C-alpha cells in the first residue's frame, strides 16, 4: 500500500541548508576579527583598517594586535594572536611581508579560521617574495586557514556592515558581487559607485590569489541569495580549470560579467604550426569565457550597465532588436552600435507594418528603426510599443525619446509602465536630454526598465545581453551522441600508442605525414590514401597502384611545411612525371641544405631531411579548404582551432577557438564563429556540405586531442569539404596532417592538463543485477537527456518524494531547463552515475537508476543522492550504485560523504547501514543524516 505523501515544509530545506557552512563565511560574516598590525599612526594602513572595522558595525568584536601598545584607538590590544581570549574567525594582517609567514603560523596554532593579508612585497617583488608566499601557504595548509591576498585592499560586506579594508569609504549595500585583482581599481570603482548609486553585496580585492581564487569566490557568491550578479576585473586567470568549473555552474542562474585587462599579442605567435600562430592567448580567453557562460565586456561602464540590465530584464532569445524612436538620428546611431556589437535589426513582419499604418502618420519610417515622428504623444508611443512587443520577429525593444515640443517625457514613461516585464523580451529605454527627462527616467527605473542617456549605449548593452544568452545556450543545448560505432574498432587507441611510442623511442618530436594520417584514421577521420616511396621506382609503383593523376609530396622526419621547400608536386599524369617530381623534390632539399643555414643545421641534428616521398591520389579541390588544429596555451592547455584552411590560412585569419572536449553542439558553435560557415551552408547555387558529418569529425578530432596528451600540436590542413552535386555525393577528407609531440625531456606528470575535464570513462563498467539482467554503470553525459525523460516516466510518486523530499509533477521534472542540471554536469564538481540497460533484441537503451555525488563548496565533503526506477528496485542496484559512488569519492579525494534521508525512507537507510554509514537524526524530526568517512 502506497504511503500518503505530502510536500516537506520549506523549513526543512532552510534547516538543511543552514547546516552547510562554507569556510569563506569566516571572511564575509565573522563574529570576531583581529587586526594584526593595528596602529594609531595617522594615515597608516593599520590604523585605517581598525577604524573602518569599528566605525562600520558588523555585529562582531574587534581585537587589535600590537606587541608595543596596551590599547589602540581606545580598544584593549593584545601582544599576539594567541593572547586573545576568544577564538578568532578572521585575522586581518598589515605587517611587513617577512613577518607574515610567522604570523600565519601563530594563527594556525590559535585556531584562527581565515585571514586577509593586506601586506605587499610578495611575488610582485621577485624570487624572495615568491619564497615567502610558499612559506605562508605551507603554514595555512597545516590549519586549513583560507587566505585572501596578499597585496590586496581587503574585503567589504556592505549588507552586514563589515569593512575589512583600508579604503576611505564603505560601499553602498546592493546586490552586485564585485571582485577585483587591482586594489587601485577598487578604490576608483568605489568612488564611481557613489556617483552612479551602484550597491554591492560584496566588494573584494583579491590580490595575488595565493589561496582564495576566482573559483572560490564565484562559488561563494553564487550560493549567496543576496547576490544577483557577479562582476569581475581580471588581470590573470590563475587556476583556469577551477575558474571555468565554478563559472559554468553559477552563470546559469546569475550573470557573471568580466572585464579583462591586457589584450596583448599572442604568446603563441612564434609557434611552428599554423594553429599555434592563429590561436592567440586573448582569443583563447574569449573562448574559455564563452564555454562557461561568462560575458566579457570592454569598459567599466559596460561592466555595471550589463549587470544592472541582466538583473532587471529577461535575456533575449535572439539578436534582433526593435528600435522605436521619435527622431531619426538617434535611431541610426543605435543601429550602428547594434550591428557593430553583433546584434541585428528586427525585420518587421507584414502584420506589424499593417498595424503601424493604422496608428502612425503617413510618413512614419515604414522600417526598423520605427520612427514615429517628432510630434509623437504618449498615446502614440504606447500604441506603437504594443505592436512592436507583439511582433514575433522581435527579440527585444529599445524605446528612444528626444524632448521635442509635442513630447511629454514624464507621461510617456508613465504609459510604458505596463510593458516593464514582457515575457522573454527585454525592454530598454533611452530618455535623451537633461533635467526635463529626469522624472521620466526615475519612473522607468522604478519599474525595472533600464534607462540610458545615449541610445548607442542601450543598443550595445542589448547586444551584450544576447551574447550572454548565446553563450549559455551553447553550453546547455542537447548534443547528438557520437556516430562512431564502438564495435568498428574506432578509435583504435592501440595503433596510435604504437606510432607515438616508436617516434619517441627514436627521439623524434615530428611525425611524418604518413604517421599523422594513420593517427587521424584511427579516430575515424577520413584521410586520402597515402603510399610511402623511398625511390623513384617505388614512387612509380605506388602511382600505378593508386591510379593517375597523383600528388607527390616530401617524406621527412624534420620538415613539415612541405610547400615552403618545394616539397609538393601536383597533378602528375604518368610515370615519367612521377619520376621527375621525385628528382625535383630531392634536389630542392639538397639545395636548401647547401644554401640555407636553417636547413643545414637541421641536417646536422638529424640527417633525415629527405627520406623519399609519399604518393597520393590527386583529389579535385572543388570544395572548401578548412583547417582543424590544436595547440597549447600556457594557461588553458590544449585548445582547438577551426576555420578557413589552405596555403593562405594565416592571411585570411578566419578562425574560431574552443576548448576541448567538444560535443556536436559546441562543434557547430565553432563553425558559426567563422566567415566560411556561411559558404558551408550553401551559397551561389551550391548545396550545403554535410554539416552533421563535419560536427562528428570535429568531435572525433577533439577526442583525439583529449586522449593523446603526448601530442603537442596537430593540424589537418587542408580538410577538404565537398558539397554534393549531381556527379558526386560530396564528403570530407583530410588531404594533409601534421603532428608534433612533446620533447623527450617532458615527463608524463608534466604534460599539460585540459582546462575542462573530459568524460571520465575510467568509471564505466558492467554489472549484473540479482535477476541476471546486465547493466552498464557509467557517468552521465549531456546526450542522455532523452533517456532521462523516459526514466522519469517510470518513477512512482513515492520514489519521487523520497528522492526530492516533495512531489514534482512529471511535466516539471522533464523540462529541458531542469534536465540540463541533471545531465550537463562538471565532472570536477560532481559525478552522476547511471545504470543503463540495452535490450538485446531491439538494441534500444534505457536508464534504470541514477546516483549522484556532489562536492560541497569549499570543503572536502560531498553529498550523495540516488533513485531507482520502481520496476528495478530490490535487485541490489541501489546498493551497487552507492558503493560505486563511494569508490568514486575515494578516487576523487573526497574526505567524507553525507546524505539527507527522509525518516520513513527505510530502504535507503538500510542501504546506507549496509555500506558503513552512520545514521543520526537532524534538527528536523522528518530527516535523518547519513555520514561516512572515506
Automatic annotation (TrEMBL):
GO terms for molecular function: acetate-CoA ligase (ADP-forming) activity; acyltransferase activity, transferring groups other than amino-acyl groups; ATP binding; metal ion binding. The keyword ATP-binding applies. The keyword Membrane does not apply. InterPro entries: Acyl-CoA_Synth/Transferase, Acyl_CoA_acyltransferase, ATP-grasp, ATP_grasp_subdomain_1, CoA-bd, GNAT_dom, Ligase_CoA_dom, NAD(P)-bd_dom_sf. SUPFAM superfamilies: Acyl-CoA N-acyltransferases (Nat) (SSF55729), Glutathione synthetase ATP-binding domain-like (SSF56059), NAD(P)-binding Rossmann-fold domains (SSF51735), Succinyl-CoA synthetase domains (SSF52210). Residues 775-934 form the N-acetyltransferase domain. Residues 517-553 form the ATP-grasp domain. PROSITE patterns: ATP_GRASP, GNAT. Keywords: ATP-binding, Ligase, Nucleotide-binding, Transferase. Pfam families: Acetyltransf_3, ATP-grasp_5, CoA_binding_2, Ligase_CoA_2, Succ_CoA_lig. It comes from the Bacteria. In the N-terminal section; belongs to the acetate CoA ligase alpha subunit family. This is GCN5-related N-acetyltransferase. It comes from Anabaenopsis circularis NIES-21.
